Amino acid sequence: MSQDAAVPAEGRARRPWAVFVVATLLIAGAAFAAGRFSMFGAVGPGAPNAADMGFARDMQLHHAQAVEMAMIEYRDTDDDELRAIAYDIATAQSAQAGEMYGWLVHWGVPQASDQPLMAWMSGSDHDHGAPADGEQLTDEELREAMGMASPAELTALREATGTEQDCLFTELMIRHHTGAIEMVRAVQELGSDPRVTQVASGMAEAQQREIEGLQAVHDRLACG
């Protein structure tokens, strides 16, 4: 009896999924590590301020969800153009998250903060941290203001198939990228570290191109 024949059919069916998980984790991990070590000697000479540090923390969180959604789409889609976009998002944003992690290490400050999300954006033209009545938004509301997907939307993305999933991915990622660009505009206005503003500007340019590509796919698929 062959080794494959000895493996239950269910176990054989799960092998591609296991291979995918390992491969994507290795890709994301390698990209994160590349970003983590690329920052040595690259952080600008100026002392970072609260906006630089807040941006590095919040954008890591934001990027983590983008990578998660991109990996789901990369695994499931049959659309070659979307698979390429998803791969680019996962690898680029993993690397950027690694660099931002490295900034905080370099600055000698914690990776986490007790401040609400986007508190560092206060005073900018892109402040979403508090409504007009002055009440603090909940964490869920802050994530929504950042363009992030809700837990229910992530579940829907995982469970959808075919064109339905592709359309949902384009819609969620366009919104997600739009929120990221708002964060970039805020740190460009408020930040003090030249490396932060340089990297942030590159993020905005890349994500704007991806928005255009995602919108083109959305139109091609005739998503509702």
UniProtKB/TrEMBL annotation:
Pfam families cross-referenced by the UniProt entry: DUF305 (PF03713)
Start and end residues of each DUF305 domain: 52-217
Stored InterPro entries: DUF305_CopM-like, Ferritin-like
Keywords assigned: Lipoprotein
Superkingdom in the source lineage: Bacteria
Protein name: Lipoprotein
Native organism: Microbacterium album
Lineage: Bacteria, Bacillati, Actinomycetota, Actinomycetes, Micrococcales
